[in-house]
Amino acid sequence: PSGFFARVETTWYRQRSFGYGNAAESAGDAFAQADVFVGWRFARRRAEWTIGLLNVTAQDYRLNPLNPYSELARDRTFYTRVRFAL
């Protein structure tokens, strides 16, 4: 209900593209991205404060922009979030 917490997330991405004239564009990419978070939940979960580091390994990627994907961190990125529950 309240107290300290920690979380690690790892996501694997793989893309293979076919049908393009340029071989470099059609290569696609495969990579894993790890994110680390720590935080504190206040009493009765009324608020939560989280800090973290996105893309811990600082691995860049080359995804084909023609496919819809959420923008991922290309370098190590500091992350912070404060949530309030009403």
Please, could you describe this protein's structure?
This protein has about 90 residues and is mainly beta. It is built from one helix and four strands. The protein has one helix spanning about 25; strands at about 5-15, 30-40, 45-55, 75-85. The chain has a four-stranded antiparallel sheet, with no helix packed on it. Strand 2 (about 30-40) and strand 3 form a beta hairpin. It is elongated. The two termini are about 15 Å apart. The model has no long low-confidence stretch (mean pLDDT about 85).
Task: Describe the secondary-structure layout.
Layout (H helix, E strand, L loop, with lengths): L2 E13 L7 H4 L2 E13 L5 E8 L22 E8 L2
Antiparallel strand pairs: 1-2, 2-3, 3-4
Helix content: under 10%
Using only CA atoms, what is the Rg?
18 Å
Spatially, the strands of the biggest sheet line up as 1-2-3-4
Beta-strand content = over 45%
Q: State the total count of DSSP E strands.
A: 4
Coarse shape: elongated
Q: What is the number of helical segments per DSSP (H or I, 4+ residues)? A: 1
pLDDT averaged over residues: 86
- Element-level helix/strand string: EHEEE
Sheet with most strands? 4 strands, antiparallel
